[in-house]
Amino acid sequence: MTGILVTFAAILGLAVGSFLNVVVHRVPLGESVVSPPSRCPGCETRIRPLDNVPVLSWLLLRGKCRTCRCRISPRYPLVEVGTGALFAGLAAHFGAAPELPAFLYLAAVGLALALIDLDCKRLPNALVLPSYPVAIVLLALAVAGPAPLSALLRALVCGVALFLVFLGIALVKPGGMGFGDVKLAGLLGCYLGWVGWDSTVVGGFLPFLLGGAVGLVLMALRRAGRRSAIPFGPFMVAGAMIAVVAGQPVGHAYASFVLG
């Protein structure tokens, strides 16, 4: 049963990843994600359904438009594969738990936000703000099943707490963190709080650790300086996803080490 669920989640992730490519391109431009249909950026020819199959079409077309042979970035299949892998990993971790749809949504919107932040250095309200009610509704539906009400209450508390922590950081050090990061922190806090207190702490701390490590590497390679602006959203999403899966054991291990 688990194998079937993971396989289905992976296939669903590939399809969702194809849609995320549209979202990442159009949302920063303020364009609709449903109309007009996808077209080749070179010749403006509408992409045929058979040429829009995730990953497979890109491979068969050798990364080029069928009509004008314009190069199609390998980022498109990579996003599709990445989304499929995230979906499969979450399905394997949660199994058929009622909260799985909520975390699949987190993976999808989180990946889209991370890519947009890398491209544009901003986290659009058009994605972040609607994700709050979506998260609350999906987690509330999980409570309507076998999940405990305490998990939803903890999620709301942790969402507010992480929002306030990041807001405090943004106010204490203006320019060091954007308000988009603050709003994203509240959303991620809801999901982390659902998993547990340990995951919330680990998920709140990891972005700074990951961001600092990447910043040091970039400076060592002379690709960035001490004052270079590095998008923080991708580290927040990565830290949250790691904490969702491994936050509790990491938190327990740290507590055991500190307390002996």
UniProtKB/TrEMBL annotation:
<dbReference type="InterPro" id="IPR000045">
    <property type="entry name" value="Prepilin_IV_endopep_pep"/>
</dbReference>
<dbReference type="GO" id="GO:0008168">
    <property type="term" value="F:methyltransferase activity"/>
</dbReference>
<dbReference type="Pfam" id="PF01478">
    <property type="entry name" value="Peptidase_A24"/>
</dbReference>
<comment type="function">
    <text>Plays an essential role in type IV pili and type II pseudopili formation by proteolytically removing the leader sequence from substrate proteins and subsequently monomethylating the alpha-amino group of the newly exposed N-terminal phenylalanine.</text>
</comment>
<dbReference type="GO" id="GO:0004190">
    <property type="term" value="F:aspartic-type endopeptidase activity"/>
</dbReference>
<feature type="domain" description="Prepilin type IV endopeptidase peptidase">
    <location>
        <begin position="105"/>
        <end position="215"/>
    </location>
</feature>
<feature type="transmembrane region" description="Helical">
    <location>
        <begin position="179"/>
        <end position="197"/>
    </location>
</feature>
<keyword id="KW-0812">Transmembrane</keyword>
<dbReference type="GO" id="GO:0032259">
    <property type="term" value="P:methylation"/>
</dbReference>
<feature type="transmembrane region" description="Helical">
    <location>
        <begin position="6"/>
        <end position="24"/>
    </location>
</feature>
<keyword id="KW-0997">Cell inner membrane</keyword>
<keyword id="KW-0378">Hydrolase</keyword>
<feature type="transmembrane region" description="Helical">
    <location>
        <begin position="203"/>
        <end position="221"/>
    </location>
</feature>
<dbReference type="InterPro" id="IPR050882">
    <property type="entry name" value="Prepilin_peptidase/N-MTase"/>
</dbReference>
<dbReference type="GO" id="GO:0006465">
    <property type="term" value="P:signal peptide processing"/>
</dbReference>
<dbReference type="InterPro" id="IPR010627">
    <property type="entry name" value="Prepilin_pept_A24_N"/>
</dbReference>
<keyword id="KW-0489">Methyltransferase</keyword>
<feature type="transmembrane region" description="Helical">
    <location>
        <begin position="127"/>
        <end position="145"/>
    </location>
</feature>
<comment type="similarity">
    <text>Belongs to the peptidase A24 family.</text>
</comment>
<protein>
    <recommendedName>
        <fullName>Prepilin leader peptidase/N-methyltransferase</fullName>
        <ecNumber>2.1.1.-</ecNumber>
        <ecNumber>3.4.23.43</ecNumber>
    </recommendedName>
</protein>
<feature type="domain" description="Prepilin peptidase A24 N-terminal">
    <location>
        <begin position="11"/>
        <end position="94"/>
    </location>
</feature>
<feature type="transmembrane region" description="Helical">
    <location>
        <begin position="102"/>
        <end position="120"/>
    </location>
</feature>
<dbReference type="GO" id="GO:0005886">
    <property type="term" value="C:plasma membrane"/>
</dbReference>
<feature type="transmembrane region" description="Helical">
    <location>
        <begin position="151"/>
        <end position="172"/>
    </location>
</feature>
<keyword id="KW-0808">Transferase</keyword>
<feature type="transmembrane region" description="Helical">
    <location>
        <begin position="233"/>
        <end position="255"/>
    </location>
</feature>
<keyword id="KW-0511">Multifunctional enzyme</keyword>
<keyword id="KW-1133">Transmembrane helix</keyword>
<keyword id="KW-1003">Cell membrane</keyword>
<dbReference type="Pfam" id="PF06750">
    <property type="entry name" value="A24_N_bact"/>
</dbReference>
<keyword id="KW-0645">Protease</keyword>
<keyword id="KW-0472">Membrane</keyword>
<dbReference type="InterPro" id="IPR014032">
    <property type="entry name" value="Peptidase_A24A_bac"/>
</dbReference>
